[in-house]
């Protein structure tokens, strides 16, 4: 498709209509044929997965630097590059260092948890709140992001949420007031120290950078052309940014799925996109679908309309939807899914990569049961939506266990299983002897430690050939415990890696995991050390033990998206990348998890949206309506990524033993008759 050099166009089409392909071809045409410098073209994408897909397709002979990023990546880069302007316009930043520091989500959550814990101990806040501190901290940080990307002041979050309640009382009012106090304490301290999470970065960009005349003039000179995919998933401040650029760019081309909007759980606003941008550009409709057959296309629209309550007709062609009879237990259902996949591959000729399992959680149990069946048949399962916790890797766990043993003053005793895994890793002894020795180590008073070599039966357990190594490790730990000036946790992890865990049989993955852990610790130390009265080293170990996710390199992400494996993922993760499938398996169709609630103790995604009227009440009727709309939208988009067939599985009982009574299975039954 060729478009004029000076043009502003929106490509409007459903999933699989070819929007991304046209955007890529347009970019290539602009660089190769029109000779437009690639650094003058700003490409805004949804996430790292999309960016990876574009990365492999936008390296052209005529390209210079490729300006390809997400909205947050763009903001972070701009603040970093133009930080002196931010400092000039924001007097709240007291630490005037020339470089800003950006929080990871885990670091932000840790800092909010620290503020909550301090307030709970001093003031007894959050009476009546059933959520644990880590859940509260997640909600508070998420609220900050949703408010910032919707242009809502952090000061208005609690009032907005409280005003939306159907039933109000003094206790709930106090809860939201407590949350506001936590939010203000966390945010103001971060701003003061020049440490910013995503929400603060958005605030700074919109209040202190893009409002600056000099910066704005330079921005208009740099951005001459604009390419955006998934316009419908933009957050409101991104929409405002695009609207600001539109009169000044020479051309723009946007991919827009009028049936999308799944990003609302992260703060996107499809309604705001329609209100602010659709009338500003020429709209070209793309009516074809390249990712599903006509019967699947029609069924997806039919299901959408039926869930929305607009129509009630039966599907004429039912061969492409295979409904498996419900079984009682979820474990039995997962085994049936595994067996079915083997038949699809062995008997029907599908490749493993043709098949995607959609689960609302894609949890470890689902992965284990199905993966075990596939593995027994020489097949592999790839969980796209799971990011491993750092402590899930045995080598990283060994580093953390040694850190706990070396810092008894933190009062964070390692558990028996972790000590057993450490012993097996470094001494290479069998599970039984490792367990016995781990018991002895954990029983030592006043804190776990390696017993003296004279301890009864110790030599027999570790083996004579391991005495020298055992003594070296025991002495190393004891000597480190006696040091007055302990190393920062990142330097400690590096030291223990080099002096204890390095061996000739280390795999490349072990080295990579150690590097990732040390890098995470270094970043954490750099950030949290600015905050007074927080034990940085202990805080990092606590954070890792609580389940911090391992960072995922672009190479690991690329490996996930390639290869001939069956894919397990969630509906939202599936839609947020460019995947398509020949067969989609819907797991636990009758589960309530297909319609998650927006109303939670301390948050509500709809109330913190740009388009919400803060004088309105968020009723249960509205909640049910929004749940159905979200389900209808998700299913329509998913089915239009499916080429051949959909297979559904469900169990009468959930994993917790409760009866499944979700609505999605009923809709399938009604349409299929």
CATH homologous group name of the largest domain:
P-loop containing nucleotide triphosphate hydrolases
Total of domains: 4
Mean pLDDT: 90
Radius of gyration over C-alpha positions, nearest whole angstrom:
27 Å
Spatial strand order of the main sheet = 3-2-6-7-1-8
For the record, the CATH class of the largest domain is Alpha Beta
The residue fraction in helices comes out at 40-55%
Number of strands: 14
Helix vs. strand class = alpha/beta
Number of helices: 27
List segments where confidence is low: pLDDT < 50 over at least 5 consecutive residues: 1-5, 552-556
Oligomer: single chain
How far apart lie the N and C ends?
Answer: 43 Å
Description:
- The protein has four domains: 8-66 and 224-286, Rossmann fold (3-Layer(aba) Sandwich), CATH 3.40.50; 101-196; 321-387 and 556-672, Rossmann fold; 390-545.
- The model is unreliable at 1-5 and 552-556 (pLDDT under 50).
- 39% of the residues are buried.
- It is of the alpha/beta class and 673 residues long.
- The protein contains 27 helices and 14 strands.
- Helix content is 50%, strand content 9%.
Keywords:
Rossmann fold; globular; six-stranded parallel sheet; 27 helices; alpha/beta; 14 strands; 4 domains; 673 residues; single chain
What's the helix and strand layout?
Blueprint: E1 8-13, H1 19-33, E2 41-45, H2 48-55, E3 68-70, H3 71-81, H4 83-89, E4 101-102, H5 105-123, H6 133-149, H7 157-163, H8 170-193, E5 195-196, H9 198-209, H10 213-222, E6 225-228, H11 236-245, E7 251-256, H12 270-276, E8 282-286, H13 294-307, E9 321-323, H14 330-346, E10 355-358, H15 364-376, E11 381-383, H16 394-406, H17 416-427, H18 431-443, H19 458-462, H20 467-482, H21 489-501, H22 508-528, H23 536-545, H24 554-561, E12 566-569, H25 571-575, E13 581-586, H26 620-639, E14 642-648, H27 664-672
Helix pairs in contact: 3-9, 4-9, 5-6, 5-8, 6-9, 7-8, 13-26, 13-27, 14-15, 16-17, 16-21, 17-18, 21-22
């Amino acid at each position: 498709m060729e478009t004029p050099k000076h043009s502003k166009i929106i490509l409007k089409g459903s999933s699989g209509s070819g929007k991304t392909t046209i955007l890529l071809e347009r970019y290539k045409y602009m660089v190769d044929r029109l000779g437009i410098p690639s650094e003058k073209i700003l490409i805004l994408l949804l996430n790292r997965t999309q960016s990876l897909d574009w990365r492999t397709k936008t390296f052209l002979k005529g390209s210079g630097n490729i300006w390809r990023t997400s909205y947050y990546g763009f903001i972070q880069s701009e603040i970093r590059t133009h930080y002196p302007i931010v400092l000039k316009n924001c007097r709240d930043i007291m630490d005037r260092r020339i470089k800003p520091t950006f929080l990871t989500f885990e670091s932000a959550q840790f800092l909010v948890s620290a503020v909550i814990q301090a307030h709970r101990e001093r003031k007894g806040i959050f009476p009546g709140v059933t959520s644990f501190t880590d859940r509260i901290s997640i909600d508070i940080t998420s609220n900050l992001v949703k408010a910032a990307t919707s242009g809502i002041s952090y000061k208005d979050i609690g009032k907005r949420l409280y005003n939306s309640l159907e039933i109000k009382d003094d206790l709930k009012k106090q809860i939201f007031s407590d949350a506001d106090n936590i939010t203000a304490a966390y945010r103001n301290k971060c701003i003061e120290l020049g440490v910013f999470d995503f929400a603060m970065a958005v605030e700074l960009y919109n209040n202190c950078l893009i409002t600056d005349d000099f910066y704005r003039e330079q921005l208009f000179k740099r951005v001459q052309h604009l390419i955006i995919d998934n316009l419908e998933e933009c957050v409101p401040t991104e929409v405002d940014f695009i609207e600001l650029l539109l009169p000044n760019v020479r051309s723009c081309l946007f991919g827009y799925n009028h049936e999308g909007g799944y990003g609302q759980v992260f703060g996107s606003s499809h309604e705001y996109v329609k209100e602010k941008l659709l009338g500003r550009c020429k709209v070209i409709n793309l009516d074809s679908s390249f990712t599903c057959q006509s019967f699947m296309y029609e069924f997806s629209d039919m299901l959408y309309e039926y869930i929305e309550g607009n129509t009630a007709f039966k599907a004429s062609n039912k061969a492409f939807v295979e409904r498996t009879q419900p079984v009682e237990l979820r474990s039995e259902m997962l085994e049936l899914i595994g067996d079915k996949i083997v038949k699809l591959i062995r008997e029907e000729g599908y490749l493993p990569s043709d098949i995607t399992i959609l689960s609302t959680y894609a949890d470890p149990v689902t992965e284990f049961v199905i993966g075990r069946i596939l593995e027994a048949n020489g097949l592999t399962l790839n969980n796209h939506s799971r990011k491993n916790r750092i402590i899930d890797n045995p080598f990283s766990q060994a580093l953390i266990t040694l850190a706990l043993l070396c810092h008894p003053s933190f009062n964070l005793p390692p558990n028996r299983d972790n000590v057993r895994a450490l012993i097996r890793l470094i001494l290479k002894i069998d599970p039984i002897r490792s367990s016995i020795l781990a018991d002895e180590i954990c029983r030592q008073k006043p804190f776990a430690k390696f017993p003296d070599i004279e301890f009864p039966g110790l030599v027999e357990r570790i083996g004579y050939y391991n005495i020298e190594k055992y003594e070296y490790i025991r002495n190393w730990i004891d000597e480190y415990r006696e040091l007055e000036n302990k190393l920062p946790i990142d330097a400690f992890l590096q030291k223990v890696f080099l002096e204890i865990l390095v061996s000739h049989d280390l795999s490349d993955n072990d080295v990579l995991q150690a590097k990732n852990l040390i890098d995470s610790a270094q970043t954490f130390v750099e950030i949290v050390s600015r905050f007074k009265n927080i034990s940085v080293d202990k805080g990092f170990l606590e954070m890792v033990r609580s389940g911090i996710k391992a960072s995922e390199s672009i190479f690991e992400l690329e490996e996930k998206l390639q290869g001939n494996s069956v894919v397990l993922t969630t509906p939202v993760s599936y839609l947020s990348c460019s995947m398509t499938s020949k067969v989609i398996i819907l797991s636990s169709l009758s589960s309530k998890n297909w319609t998650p609630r927006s109303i939670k103790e301390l948050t509500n995604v709809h109330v913190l949206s740009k388009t919400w009227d803060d004088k309105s009440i968020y009723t249960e009727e509205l909640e049910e309506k929004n749940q159905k709309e979200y389900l209808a939208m998700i299913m329509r988009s998913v089915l239009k990524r499916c080429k051949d067939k959909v297979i559904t599985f469900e169990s009468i009982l959930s994993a917790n033993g409760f009866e499944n009574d979700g609505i999605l299975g009923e809709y399938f039954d009604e349409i299929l008759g």
